[in-house]
Specification:
Order of helices and strands: HEHEHEEEEEEEHEEHHEEHEH
Radius of gyration: 21 Å
Strand order of the largest sheet: 1-9-8-7-4-2-3
Number of strands: 14
Distance between the termini: 11 Å
Low-confidence stretches: none
Mean pLDDT: 97
Largest sheet: 7 strands, mixed
Structural class: alpha/beta
């Protein structure tokens, strides 16, 4: 640790876990603008929305069996849409080991008033996945953004499951090769690994989820923005670019630009390689410092996107001071841990971050730790 400021700063000190860093080389001037000021239901508007969906499908290697829809409300809106429209047909199990998983428990209990089986673990830990009863519908976060804990793979999801698997995958999509044959419902937001703008969510439905939607009517009323069926049939237009409500075409164009960037680096494989390199660069920083550690103690369930770090002897006030010092110096933006998580740092290592910037971050963490004493 040192009180001497490092000479080198990260060129892009954007390590926020959402909204995340824009893709390298991004400029607003490079965005296509022909769709702006036009109806999203015009021929051009529909074509651009479909372009966005097609790029997501190609880059994610998503099978034709799964549908992709652009919906309101970011990842939260997409996941709540899935819960409100499909839960209630079977018993429910909810897994919670961080803030957003706990939020889905609250929705199920207090809003939908169903009585789920809840399997919890503390921050930094993963629940015993072997406890899950797959005759139930199962809600879980694939990658816990606020705890840095993820499920290790999809092997724990039963192939012969009777219930549906609902994966909040917002910090996992484009960072892991997800097993789509094990996922019935997945949600994410462009603002995470793509570095896109917020407000819009993405809802991915497998065939078993579509079957549920077309065969089951929930007991509770559905807001208009949640309605995915009409007269007992899926509204297919939602999954070809006919959005439920008016989208921001500027946000759509920004997502298209991010997806074209992913395509240019080799698609999903290239994005995974960048995430892996970034996480390794941060791991090296942690390994070299006794005062830094991982909130997720088990490497097998440690996120490589939202990496949550413990800081020896630091309370919430010291973490805030460290984060403020780094922001003042233009060395790192928005790296204090999530408000409900144990005090610590949270550094985004998704594909839009450069490993060279993470490497430059280490000496600045030393400086901020020394300055905050």
């Amino acid at each position: 640790m040192t009180n001497i400021k490092p000479d080198l700063r990260p060129e892009r000190p954007h390590f926020s876990s959402g909204p995340c860093a824009k893709p390298p080389g991004w400029t607003a001037a490079a965005l296509a603008t022909e769709s702006l000021g036009r109806s999203h239901r015009s021929k051009l508007g529909k074509a651009r929305l479909k372009r966005c969906i097609d790029l997501m499908r190609a880059n994610l290697k998503l099978p034709d069996t799964h549908r992709i829809g652009i919906v309101p409300g970011s990842d939260t809106g997409a996941f709540e849409m899935a819960m409100w429209t499909m839960l209630g047909a079977r018993p429910v199990t909810a897994l919670a080991w961080e803030s957003f998983g706990e939020g889905w428990v609250t929705d199920a209990v207090k809003q939908l008033k169903i009585d789920p089986t809840v399997i919890r673990a503390d921050y930094g830990q993963l629940p015993d996945l072997g406890q899950v009863d797959w005759s139930n519908d199962v809600l879980f976060t694939w990658n816990g953004t606020t705890s840095g804990v993820r499920v290790p793979d999809g092997e724990w999801i039963a192939r012969d499951r009777e219930g549906l698997s609902f994966a909040d995958a917002t910090s996992a999509v484009f960072a892991y090769d997800l097993p789509w044959d094990r996922i019935d419902v997945a949600t994410f937001s462009w603002q995470k690994v793509l570095g896109g703008e917020g407000a819009h969510g993405v809802l991915i439905l497998g065939p078993r989820a579509v079957e549920r939607l077309e065969s089951y009517t929930p007991a509770w009323p559905l807001p208009k923005v949640f309605r995915l069926t009409s007269k007992g049939k899926l509204i297919e237009g939602i999954f070809s670019g006919e959005t439920i409500n008016t989208p921001s075409m500027l946000a759509v164009e920004d997502a298209i630009a991010a997806l074209e960037w992913v395509e240019s680096i080799g698609g999903l494989d290239g994005a995974i390689q960048r995430c892996t390199a970034n996480a390794a660069a941060l791991e090296a920083i942690v390994d070299q410092r006794g005062w830094l550690g991982h909130l997720a103690a088990d490497p097998a369930s440690r996120s490589k996107t939202s990496v949550c770090l413990t800081v020896e002897g630091a309370d919430e006030a010291r973490i805030k001071k460290m984060a403020a010092l780094l922001e003042e110096q233009g060395a790192a933006f928005d790296i204090a841990g999530y408000r409900d998580a144990p005090p610590g740092l949270r550094i985004w290592c998704g594909a839009t971050v450069d490993a060279s910037d993470i490497e430059k971050l280490g000496p600045w963490l030393d400086w901020a730790y020394a300055q905050s004493e």
